[in-house]
Design goal:
253 residues, alpha/beta, 6-stranded mixed beta sheet, Rossmann fold, 8 helices
Length: 253
């Protein structure tokens, strides 16, 4: 059974179609990248798959659960890192992660917090109120809450934003190792370089439509993912909307 499966998943807001007939299958152990410019439907897809948003049409299955019929079962089973999400401003990282542990009924939560604080480099700020943390430090805390319960499947929207180059490399290594151990990661990004470096399979959405899928490892040695997508999915005369050269830690918003 695939970790994620959708059929004709569609979301409309009045006359606006945010997502159109998305059908995909993500096997267990895949590091799947959903690639596309801002406003293309990536975040809408994640919100539907994690039970935060009901589709207008179509069906979905996440680890065997229906995110429409049983959204709580999905959210209990997966890890979620939305784009631009911060820990509560009035809590320290330790307090926030303890809260996450209580909600998820985790055992050994103090040891888990210590492990992730060490792995992601925020031991020295564990007891600093979140409003006094830098953007990068807050992102590290949110990454910790995503993985602290050791889920089989994680959804991450732009995981490397605000991280310095060294931490970016360490997070990339963790995500690869996470999937090498049989877990599944669904990564949303508009950075081709990130998708090309990390993903075992990449799909692209444009204007709410799923238009192509490719395994970066199958590219010719002299071909880049950008070249493939420009050739296969750009409408004639388009200039190309997907950034490739910007550092992954920079935001275009």
């Amino acid at each position: 059974m695939p970790a994620i499966e959708t059929e004709d998943l569609t979301k409309r807001y009045g006359d606006v179609t945010a997502l159109s007939s998305l059908s995909l299958s993500v096997p267990e152990g895949e590091l799947f990248g959903l690639l596309g410019p801002n406003g293309s439907g990536k975040t809408t897809t994640i919100e539907i798959l994690t039970g935060q948003l009901d589709p207008t049409e179509g069906t979905a299955s996440v680890l065997g659960h229906d995110p429409v019929a049983d959204p709580l079962a999905v959210r209990e089973a997966v890890g979620i890192l939305p784009e631009r999400e911060d820990p509560p401003s009035f809590l320290t990282p330790r307090e926030y992660l303890q809260f996450v542990g209580d909600v998820r009924d985790l055992s050994g939560v103090d040891d888990r917090i210590a492990e992730w604080a060490d792995r992601l480099g925020f031991v020295d700020t564990l007891d600093t109120i979140s409003t006094d943390l830098s953007e990068g430090e807050r992102q590290r805390v949110m990454l910790a809450q995503t993985f602290i319960h050791e889920p089989d499947l994680v959804f991450i929207d732009e995981p490397l934003v605000n991280l310095d180059p060294i931490m970016q490399a360490e997070v990339k290594d963790h995500m690869r190792d996470y999937c090498d151990r049989g877990n599944t990661l669904f990564l949303s990004t508009h950075f081709l370089e990130v998708a090309e470096q990390l993903c075992t399979s990449v799909g692209i959405v444009r204007d709410g439509e799923f238009v192509a899928e490719r395994d970066p490892r199958d590219l010719d040695p002299d071909e880049q993912l950008l070249d493939y997508f420009r050739r296969e999915v750009e409408p004639e005369g388009a200039t190309g909307e997907i950034p490739a050269g910007r550092a992954a830690g920079e935001s275009e918003r």
